[in-house]
Design goal:
Layout (H helix, E strand, L loop, with lengths): L13 E3 L5 H19 L11 H8 L14 H18 L3 H17 L8 H5 L14 H19 L3 H16 L16 H12 L2 H13 L6 H5 L36 H17 L3 H17 L31 H18 L2 H17 L15 E2 L26 H10 L2 H4 E3 L3 E4 L5 E7 L2 E10 L5 E8 L12 E5 L7 E5 L2 E2 L5 E2 L2 E4 L5 E8 L4 E3 L11 E6 L2 E6 H4 L6 E3 L6 E5 L6 E11 L17 E10 L11 E2 L2 E3 L4
Parallel strand pairs: 4-8, 17-22
Antiparallel strand pairs: 1-5, 2-21, 3-4, 5-6, 6-7, 7-13, 8-12, 9-10, 9-13, 11-12, 14-15, 15-16, 15-22, 16-20, 16-21, 17-19, 18-19, 19-20
Protein name: Glycoside hydrolase family 127 protein
GO biological process, one term: carbohydrate metabolic process
Organism: Blautia argi
Amino acid sequence: MEKVRLKSVPLKSVHIHDGFWDKYIRLVKDVILPYQWDTLNDRVEDAEPSHCIQNFRIAAGEESGTFQGAVFQDTDVAKWLEAVAFTLASSGRDEKLERLADETIALIGRAQCEDGYLNTYYTIQEPDRRWTNLKEGHELYTAGHMIEAAVAYYEATGKKEFLNIVSRFADVICEKFGKEEKQCHGYPGHPEIELALVKLYRITGNRKYLDTAKFFVDARGQGTNYFELEEKGERYKPIFPEFAGYQPEYSQSHLPVRQQKTAEGHAVRAVYLYSAMADLAYEYQDEELEKACETLWNNMVQKRMYITGGIGSSGLLERFTTDYDLPNDRNYSESCASIGLAMFGKRMGDMTRDAAYADIVEKALYNTVLAGIAMDGKSFFYVNPLEVWPDNCMERTSLEHVKPVRQKWFGVACCPPNIARTLASLGQYIYSQNQESLYLNLYVSNETEVVLKGKTYRIKVNSSFLTDGSVNILAEGEKGSEIQEGAGGNLALRIPGYVREFKIYRNKKQTENPVLQKGYLILENLGDREEITIEFQIKSHFVWANPQVRADEGKVALMRGPLVYCLEETDNGSNLSSLYVDTEAEPEEQYEPELLGGVVSVKLRGKRITMKGWEDGSLYNEAKPVLEDTVLKAVPYCNWGNRRTGEMTVWIKELINH
């Protein structure tokens, strides 16, 4: 029997009005998009220059000069345009913003070569070296982001200019690459084009885009590694010095994808590839490929993922290392990697209807993705450690990649616009649906309208999930069309894996002994008007890591619902490593409306090592540590670094009471 995946509710139909998320989503339109537009045009003082728009003007012949920036610099404007598209879809048309996007798209069109090729680096800098360095050149990666942006913009506005531009380029790619003898048998060093071509196929119906995506995935890791062959070519020219001593695992090209058992290499590359694999597993009903996705997912989230939903533990090459190797103070956990993790999890959840995937999507979105942006929308983390001591975040050391404060911009700035497009598209993660059922994955306050079993329903969700654990849902059938008993649609409510107790009421009557199907509670046959209330027990609780996670041995973390908590120097003083928490004492919660935009803070009982016996400043002596009682204050990890620069830690030493 053919498997049918769930689909997202269109962004234009999901209207978010949530106490937690509104402060971020409003930033996209009011602050982030204007700010990032200024950065793309090099108008932000003291920020690293982007050169992005300038490169397009040079490629279009409208300015003179040389290409500047990273080889994939074009993707910054692509992701910005995708964020604009999602904003127009979710927030309604904005003439000024849409006009700016149209002008930018027209500029991209003018920079496109006559044969359809589009990439300002190769157009300006290396016109005779197209497709000669797939390992490092990012041509296909850049094309993928352009395609994603164009599809989103067409869906938001109905305008085809951008879609036509990228379709011409996709045609060039489909002609160049494939399994035929005359075609290039290579594949991208950085996956992205694969999932983008699937999107282009779904919007255009042109099968060659889907088939080319499948070729790129199937060819990977087959036979002699393509990148090793490529390096021997006469026109090959290296771009990144750090790629010396290249290992195929870095680009997930060490084995055919169906034989890969562990998440390897560059974390962003990995999850973009896995997302495409999930798409193709569905489109081709490929059970072997789906199984490979499940295997890779399980290895990644069960043995190689941080409690915050961060992935990529090595600061060198931004990559996975080995099982349970999760250092807290020098990890990478790139913001883009957690975004890719959410993309992968969304696809797997839609294909399997298993809420366990949404649990991880929620973890990534609420923690690492949000930590990547300041609450004012004007500075960003590229790297997301779980422990920071600002004094040792020094250049030319093993910690130079860790920043104790968010940066205005980056020379390689893939994360800021990626965060923008993710926030703007949050609605796609809230719901999934098929013809019979609506799946509620994230408890975010919103209103939407969907058709189930041929009947229109208006759904209104009022959630105070993060404060008191309650969610109220009103589902109303379209007025004037009575829903016959037993003929209504279904509502599937995700019960998060971290929830141990909950109550659900349907029209004020408690549902006794609810049965879950893969983590969803199914309410069948919705009537004309349904009032549903869920009361989740959301309490602060301690979490321990597997003893094989050496960095966390003897330590605990604190969670409340999907939120991971941390200690900051602002609340707890310096030298957070001197603190011990008493896990036998009950955490004390307090909602503080003036703190970090309104959060539940948590007080913990514990001890602090004093400086008694160390007054002389000696480095070592025989003084036994002296502990004193103290109270620790924890705040959500996603909000850290928004007050003043200081230390931060997620994992806290545990006070062992013997």
